[in-house]
Amino acid sequence: MPGITLEDTVPNLKVETTHGKIKLHDYFKNGWTIIFSHAADFTLVCSTELGKMAAFPPEFEKRGAKLLALSCDDVQLHNERIKDVETYQPGCKVTYPIVADPNREIIKQLNMVDSDDKDFSGNQLPSRALHIVGSGNKIKMSFLYPSTTGRNMDEVLRALDSLLKASKYKVATPATWKPDDPVVISPSVTNEEAKEMFPQGFETKKLPSGLEYPHFTRV
Predict the structure, then answer these.
(1) Where is each Thioredoxin domain found (predicted)?
(2) Which of 46, 85, 171, 185 is catalytic?
(3) Pick from 95, 164, 174, 193: CA 20 to 30 A from residue 123's CA?
(4) Looking at the chain, which residues constitute the CATH 3.40.30.10 domain(s)?
(5) How does residue 43 score in pLDDT terms, banded at 50, 70 and 90?
(6) pLDDT tens-digit profile of 63-105?
(7) Has 46 been annotated as catalytic?
């Protein structure tokens, strides 16, 4: 997939949103940002995603993260679309800004272009992409789905929890990890270092290779 990817810096674009004009790096300050694209306004799958995301801001805020949506329609259409989303998902309010990109320039710079999906005029549409942006305005994780598949917001939250653990401790999270599960100590950490860094202790799995890995602990 061409364009910006993991550990690349997101360009400091000035964008028009439903909350007014913003510069991306200003918006990214002091925390994490989940920036996600959807194909177009008034499409059903995208409406379900926007509605589900509208239910999650408190969970993201607890983790120091903000949401930023993006579509190729203009601000006026976005605002009209929000009414549909909030009606479709009763009790949810779209409190996060939605970026307008009618010229399809921002989706190119953020690597959110669907190479196959086009509108009735033949213009490219955004892919169903999501970047988690962390320190240094860098992309720490990306998801890419086809237009036919809506995202799982619980997985986005789980992935953010994993990134937060990894950024605070020298650990990684194993397959199907959940926030209360054990984590894996980085292989670069020696046993002696692990004893100092993780005084709560750790467990070493004995494997046929004879190597002393992985180390599991809780943080």
Answers:
(1) 4-165
(2) 46
(3) 95
(4) 14-151
(5) low
(6) 999 999 998 888 998 888 888 888 877 788 899 999 999 888 9
(7) yes
- Most confident range (mean pLDDT) of 8-22, 38-52, 202-216 is 8-22
Written as one letter, the residue type at 74 is D
- Long-range contact list for 177-183, CB < 8 A, 24+ apart? 182/216, 182/217, 182/218, 183/216, 183/217, 183/218, 183/219
**Which residues belong to CATH 3.30.1020.10 in the chain?**
169-217
Distances in whole angstroms, Cα of residue 13 to Cα of each of 62, 96, 108: 27, 18, 12
Asked whether the predicted pLDDT for residue 213 surpasses 80, the reply is: no
What are phi and psi for residue 112, nearest 5 degrees? -125, 35
Q: Report the residue count for the chain.
A: 219
